[in-house]
Design a protein that fits this description.
Layout: H1 2-25, H2 80-88, E1 93-98, H3 112-128, E2 131-133, H4 162-178, E3 183-188, H5 194-208, E4 213-215, H6 217-233, H7 249-258, H8 265-270, E5 275-276, E6 279-280, H9 284-314
Parallel strand pairs: 1-2, 1-3, 3-4
Antiparallel strand pairs: 5-6
Length: 315
């Protein structure tokens, strides 16, 4: 039986050798040619909008916008044609606002700075008349990432390193300049990123060989003026009266203008807790009116600083 198996294996081996010899004598066939996939974008400089101009006329840079001009000042709420047309109409200033996610006492949402920066950027852009807003940069330095200190000792805080924040702001600014914006305005509602924004503006202007990036210190400094407005002019907040939390009347009043739920207004009124540092926010209509005065003040200060900086750049 073992001999029979040996003979069968030997015969099968001879068969394989013969088959291999015959295959070697046949010409080798070239593999089939597979056409290369067409690139996502062609070389037509008119192609824009995420597609190719040859595929759809709405992918062509010079195609008229089929819709009326956008009413929003927020780039992320516009179509690419809306932004193109805004630039062509002279809106060549873009504001890059920064917020922050950090603890703000027991009443106020962690995203306080994001909400306030959003409201102020829109107000400033509309007052300028020739500006748009980039989306709010929500993640800013809040202490060393991964370490529980500074604001980062409190759950819910979201922060990034100084280097990450600087890189994000720098890259956004570079993109804005590449697309044709001439004045790139950097503002921040959170104290931790102020010097970083100033340094980013300096580095970018050296890189570009001219002053295009402008850091507006007055935007953040207007917090002090808002305190004075409530204490001295409006006489709503008595100096020295503090609840001992990272929260103030000027914070809550600005947030009420955006959305009362960011300060848990409804629940606080029901619980008889709608007071901060001795200032009641229970009357929603009155609180909104006070908040609008603060927004108006901070807007006026910021617009004046931006215009002054742009004029100074031209000399």
């Amino acid at each position: 039986m073992r001999m029979k198996h040996f003979v069968l294996r030997a015969g099968y081996g001879v068969f394989l050798l013969c088959a291999a010899a015959q295959a070697a004598q046949r010409p080798v066939e070239a593999p089939p040619v597979v056409p290369a996939a067409a690139p996502a974008y062609d070389d037509d400089p008119r192609s824009m909008g995420g597609g190719r101009c040859r595929d759809n006329v709405y992918n062509c840079a010079d195609t008229p916008n089929p819709l009326p001009a956008a009413k929003t000042v927020w780039i992320d709420e516009m179509t690419w044609m809306d932004v193109r047309d805004a630039l062509a109409a002279g809106k060549k200033t873009v504001i890059i606002p920064s917020g922050g996610i950090e603890p703000n006492g027991v009443w106020t949402a962690l995203g306080k700075h994001d909400w306030i920066a959003h409201g102020l950027c829109e107000s400033v852009a509309r007052r300028l008349g020739n500006a748009l807003c980039a989306p709010v940069v929500e993640f800013v330095p809040e202490g060393e990432p991964g370490q529980k200190h500074s604001h980062a000792d409190t759950v819910g805080t979201i922060g990034v390193s100084d280097a990450t924040y600087a890189a994000v702001v720098s890259d956004i600014a570079r993109g804005m300049k590449a697309h044709g914006f001439e004045n790139i305005i950097l503002v921040g509602d959170h104290g931790g990123g102020q010097q970083i924004m100033a340094d980013v503006a300096d580095r970018l202007n050296k890189e570009w060989g001219g002053t295009h990036a402008i850091y507006i210190k007055a935007f953040y400094d207007s917090w002090d003026g808002a305190d004075a407005l409530l204490q001295k002019d409006m006489k709503l907040w008595q100096p020295g009266v503090k609840d001992g939390m990272h929260d103030d009347p000027d914070v809550e009043l600005q947030l009420i203008v955006q959305d009362p739920e960011t300060i848990r207004w409804r629940e606080r009124v029901k619980a008889h807790k709608a007071v901060i540092n001795g200032v009641s926010v229970a009357d929603l209509s009155q609180a909104r009116a006070w908040g609008r005065r603060i927004v108006e003040y901070r807007t006026t200060v910021t617009v004046a600083a931006i215009n002054q900086a742009i004029v100074a750049r031209s000399h």
